[in-house]
Amino acid sequence: MKKFCGLRRRAIAVFVLSALIHFGAAGALWAVPLGYTSTAITFPAGFAGAAALAYAADGTLYVVEAVPFGSGATSTTIHVIPPGGGFDLPISLAGDSPSEISIGDIAVDPVSGDLIITDNAPGFETLYSVNPTSGAKTSHSAFVSLSSIDKVAVRSSGEILVGDAVGSPDGEIVEVDLVGTSTSPAVTGLDLPGGIGFDTAGHLYFQEVNVNTFVAEVFRVEVDDTSGSLVYGSIDSLAAGLAAGFDLAVDSEDDVFVSGFGGLFELDRNLLGEFTGTASLFDAITSPFGSPFATGLSFLPGADPFEPFAGTSGGVLAYIPDFAHETVVLITPVPEPSSAVLMAWAVVLFVLQGARRRRVAA
Fold first, then answer.
1. pTM, whole model, 2 decimals?
2. pLDDT tens for residues 49-69?
3. Which of 22, 38, 108, 279 has its CA 20 to 30 A from that of 319?
4. φ, ψ dihedrals at 3, nearest 5°
5. Looking at residue 133, what DSSP letter applies?
6. Across-strand partners of 154?
7. What is the C-alpha end-to-end distance of the chain, expressed in Å?
8. CA dihedral of residues 347, 353, 356, 357 (deg, nearest 10)
9. Segment 161-189, tens digit of pLDDT
10. Where in the chain is the domain with CATH 2.120.10.30?
11. How far is CA 357 from CA 159, 276, 332, 351, 360, in A?
């Protein structure tokens, strides 16, 4: 009975809130879907914008500051946001190149706890391992052979995958061994590999982006780890023709979110849970340049699913809402409304609807 009542309240909440949009003031705009709320993290003065971000399992959010194009800067700052909010002491990151640093992406290794960061400065393309406590950096310069190293993701078992965005047909996603400084292919024959992620079972998800049109397609790759190493199997297309071709995140229910031109999108599913091949807008900001170009994505799972009205225990989806934007947006489910609150709103709606009908009749 308790579960039924909870589902009933959620259904009523969707109805009431949807009606509020319909009968509310003209031009009202909901930034996120019903059942979610968003907040923005504002950074200290002088912040040049966010280049990449990643959550650690303890809820700490790491945000790499962007370096202005052509500035000649050879270092940047990793901002540390603890689970309770605010800022811890930042981490300074110096690149290997004497002329510039060019951050591609960041991920957190759940096994070692290190931050894994890609730098695609010309001639110095590499991976860095950064200890988040000491700030000590280890350069893995052996991966300079990956001439366009960009996206990075770390599986729950510790395997590190990076995208080499060199263009068709040489784009690839490779598994890297930081100890043996070797690489092994996971997916080859790509154009530009975009965001990389894993679902709860450890299967691989990635984007392939057309270098000419920047239109993206999202794929899922079966991964078998029973032999002790990862074996990459069949590849299935989940959605195509997407303008959002920058980054990718998979939540605790294996729902897939992508970012890029237009904002943040979620891949559509039918009632059976099957991907339909399309995506719907999930959130976007107003950009001074017209349509926003959302970039980095990271999901922090909670005790409950990332579902509407699941409450703060439903996890957090963090994203950068526009290119090198000065804020980071955090999206969380809102708590389930109480029956009393819903009934109060229903009365308000009844009054509003009656007033509207009287105006029309007059």
1. 0.85
2. 999 999 999 999 999 999 987
3. 22
4. -65, -40
5. T
6. 160
7. 46
8. -120
9. 999 888 888 899 999 988 766 788 999 99
10. 36-333
11. 62, 40, 36, 10, 5
